[in-house]
Specification:
By secondary structure, this protein is an alpha/beta fold. Helices cover 37% and strands 24% of the residues. The chain has 10 helices and 13 strands. The strands form 2 sheets. It has a 9-stranded mixed β-sheet with strand order 5-4-1-8-9-10-11-12-13, sandwiched between helices. Strands 3-2-6-7 form a 4-stranded mixed β-sheet. Strand 2 and strand 3 form a beta hairpin. The longest helix is centred in the last third of the chain and has 19 residues.
Amino acid sequence: MNNRRIIGIGETVLDVIFRNDQPMAAVPGGSAFNAMVSLGRSVGMENPEIPILMITETGDDHIGDIIVKFMRDNNISTDAVTRNKGTQSHISMAFLDEKNDAQYEFYKDYANASLKADKVANVEFKDGDIVLFGSFFAINPVLRQYTRKLLTSAHDAGAILYYDLNFRKTHIKDIPEVMDNIVENFELATIVRGSTEDFGYLFGTSVPQEIYDKHMRKHCDLFICTDSCRPISLFTPNISAQYPVEQITTVSTIGAGDNFNAGFVYGVIQQNLTKTELSAIDEAAWSELIASGQSFSKKVCQSIFNYIEK
């Protein structure tokens, strides 16, 4: 497909990574951002004719400079990055426990987040596009006027919309305000991925089949549910399957889900699937897509960084 592009919509942060309460590294991050970096290092290197674009915002500070340069160094266009004057970039503190699982504390100026109209107005979606979006950025009421328009335009153009819920415990208090945005995202998405933890916070259930039957199928009928080191569940109108997760020695879980998303999108590129074809593929093709996601995720779990190596 010659007109294919990969477009990420999400936040950027500087991830400061701690072990034993001591900082180990500081790297650019963000849920969709991590996935886009890995796609820049894979698709961007192998298929440079496929543009990779990130729609995001950051401050006009030194951290913002670091993030923007990092994007350019990893084959990601910064044409749709808003640099908000007089604001500070977001910071995330990731504390690794004895199992190398991360607990997060966020320092973000959600109220002053903004996307400049001129930065997003020229993003015209096409039916070959793959749009990856998620986390609080995709439901933030302050940004909703922009994200709704972008996602609706992509949906109407026939793009594949991959929605990673990535709902954090810190936003439980915001559920009454953002639930309508979440449901609207479900309905716009081609495929939704969420963890049992995400849905436990949102709906009080962590059972994949129950999540699909009660909360997902009526909005989006292609659903992947991940559950840490336990099997991945896939649901489509015709398929219900589980895929075991290889048990490995983990260095860090930061970016594990983000890179599953990247690997899945990489698989869609490899199979050259359109939105219509994705809805009709058989279980063997789904198995390849899940395996591609697992491959990227495994690589990142064996590294301290948020993305696959160059």
